[in-house]
Amino acid sequence: MLSFLVRHKNPVLFGLAVVSILLVLSAQAGGRHAFETIRRGAAVLLVPLEQGGSVLWRAAAGRVEEVRELAGARRENDRLRLEVRRLEAELAKAGESEREAERLAALVQLARQTSVPTVPARVVARHPTNWFNAVTIDRGETQGVEREAALLVPSGVVGRVVSVRAGSADALLITDPRSAVAVRNARTRDEAIMEGRGRGRCRLAYVGQGQEVREGDLMVTSGMDEIFPPGLPAGKVVRVSGKGVGLFQEVEVEPVARLQALDEVAATKREAGGKKQGEKKP
To answer: How would residue 255 be classed by pLDDT, with cut points 50, 70 and 90?
Structure first.
């Protein structure tokens, strides 16, 4: 309305002046007929103002409705955005549950392939002072896990249990410098000891200068340590150097299992009758 008055300022002022003059004359004349004539004239002059006001009112009402619709659309967008986030979270949770089920199924299959009694366990912690080489699992004596039990995953050996409690156990990974695994070269059948070096690597100890070993050779467990079942992948040779200590070569090995991405493992346990896995019958 204000913008209309501004745009048509001169005609409006002229019309108001005419109406004022006519009203004064009508009052002086005192004639009813004259007053009626002035009223009609004023009505004619005010028609554009009424029409302009009507247009402005409809425009304002339309703008209010647009604002309401926009606010409603924004609320709906916010609701849909929250719904999408909820569905994404549920999808991620379902995907993780599916992957966990696949890992557990692989552990069950591993136990069948090795014919070794095992109990599935979840890695629940890593040791603050030995983050990369020691873990805690959520199974212990109550579930049949004992000290020196082997920890396995479908891709290979992981470590061994060093202390046990009722419902949990601590284990050293094969990369810990205190760890040693009896292995043999899958290609040549030569035996060796795979020791931990830290930093995610191992080394082969007691590999004579005359023994043939190449980069890429797969080392598997021999079972001679009576801890790890025989025939399981342990590591792959990544570097060979003849400049070892004395009569031995220096051979660096990378674990086959992804030790930094452990979720579930299989822990070996005693067989029926109390005989530990790997113990030879008398």
So the answer is: very high
